[in-house]
Every structure is written in C-alpha cells, then in structure tokens.
Write a structure and sequence with these properties.
alpha+beta, three-stranded antiparallel sheet, 4 helices
Length: 75
Amino acid sequence: METRFLEMNEASNFLRISKSTLYKKVMRKEIPCYKIGNKTIFDRVELTDFIKGHFIGIKTATINQFDLLTLPSLR
C-alpha cells in the first residue's frame, strides 16, 4: 500500500522534477503542500490533481499504411 503523504524527495520523484524545482514551486506557492514544523509534505491525491490541472494536451499524428511499413517498431 502506498502512503498518501510524500516527503520532498518522494514528491520530486513522483512529479519527475528536481528537488530544487519542487522547492521553488513550494516557495512560490505554485504547488499544494503542507508544513508540519520544518517539514514540508505533499498529498499524493492533490499532486495528481495538480498534474491533471496542468495537462496541455498531446498532439497526435495520423499514421498511414506506408508509415507502418517503414517503422519497424510498429510492425
């Protein structure tokens, strides 16, 4: 079972950003977090919602039959 709350190292790994980037986002209040004494913790659910709120979309390309023949990884 995964823990619901993450420490700074765990949150940076979860978000796949450096600790320094995460720290900057915390200082600018750009990311949801909680302070308990001198410790900063993050709620995994809130981080997931944060990621979903910053989704910019993915551009998709149309692949025709010729492309499938020339791309060995898609055969």
